[in-house]
Amino acid sequence: MARAADDGFEHELLPGLRATEDAARLADELAFAEARLHELRDAPPGLYAEVAAAEDPEEAAWLAFQIALLSPLEDDDPWAAIAAARSAWATGELPAIAGAPRGPRAASGDGAPAAYRAWIARSGSQAAAFSAEPSWTPQRRFDRAYERLSLPGFGRAPRYELLVLLGWLGVFDLRASSLALSSEPTDPTVTAAKRVFGIGDPLLVGRRASALATEVGVTLEALDLGLRNFGAATPEDRVTAGAAVEADPERAAAIRGVLGA
Predict the structure, then answer these.
(1) Any residues with CB less than 8 A from the CB of 168 and at least 6 apart, and which?
(2) CA 224 to chain centre
(3) Contact 152, 112 (CB under 8 A)
(4) pLDDT for the residue numbered 186
(5) Please, are residues 111 and 151 in contact by the beta-carbon 8 Å criterion?
(6) Integer CA distances (angstroms), 190 to 5, 68, 100, 182, 236, in order
(7) What's the gap between Cα 73 and its chain centre?
(8) If 0-12 CB within 10 Å is exposed, 13-18 middle and 19+ buried, where does residue 188 land?
(9) How far is CA 201 from CA 74, 197, 205, 235, in A?
């Protein structure tokens, strides 16, 4: 990971950081990740808009799965590979992902689509699988679905992203209650979180992550992408995930203020 020079920076929310420049960069990434979520909710770009507008929740959820599976590319046409490979839920066909270009948070291997359809078949529908009990909170639904989405090659990043998309695009009522840090220790978000919070224990990292999110006023979904991009070695390694917005400068400045950066 890229590290700025130690200038004596200290903050109780960021015990692993020793440079004001690093804290400021984290604030900027959190502001971008927050702006991206607001865009998903209010004016989704590309194939996200199709998910949000779909009248059939089964087709909406299936397209969201395929977006998370392949991940938008970081180029001029983020959606090209997904659009070429996608299939409709009603056909029963799997997406043609063999050899397809994949974005930075894509699943590995080609076994996840078949395993996903088999999991849904046991639940009866995607709506039943993700909505679960009507009395459950959105956070409990998110946690339960995350646990059950342990599919071949469908690691932490695409699993988490799928549930973020389903929740913020309005398909199902889902909201994160944690960063699911213990499921994949080598995930870039997990690695960055350990650095930022200065400890490797998943339980303590999770507590410190929740404290940071609360103090700066961002959701855990935003913290997920913010940490991922903070850990990028170069600007070219950042993940925009198909977003068409930039961070709000005023919001970035406000987060910097909270972090003393």
Answers:
(1) 37, 40, 41, 221
(2) 6
(3) yes
(4) 85
(5) yes
(6) 23, 18, 27, 8, 20
(7) 15
(8) buried
(9) 32, 10, 6, 28
Contact by Cβ (8 Å): 37, 29: no
User: What is the rounded radius of gyration, in angstroms, for the C-alpha atoms of the chain?
Assistant: 18
The set of residues, in sequence order, having a beta carbon less than 8 Å from that of 232 and lying 6+ positions away, is: 2, 188, 238, 239
What's the pLDDT score for residue 99? 93
Average pLDDT of 29-57? 98
Report d(CA 82, CA 93) in Å as an integer: 15
What is the reported pLDDT for 3? Answer: 67
User: What residue type is assigned to position 15 of the chain?
Assistant: P
Distance CA 59, CA 158 (A): 18
Longest CA–CA span in the chain (Å) reads 59
pLDDT at 140 over 80: yes
Residue type, 211: A
The band of 2, judged by pLDDT with boundaries at 50, 70 and 90, is low
Please say whether the beta carbons of 29 and 42 come within 8 A.
no
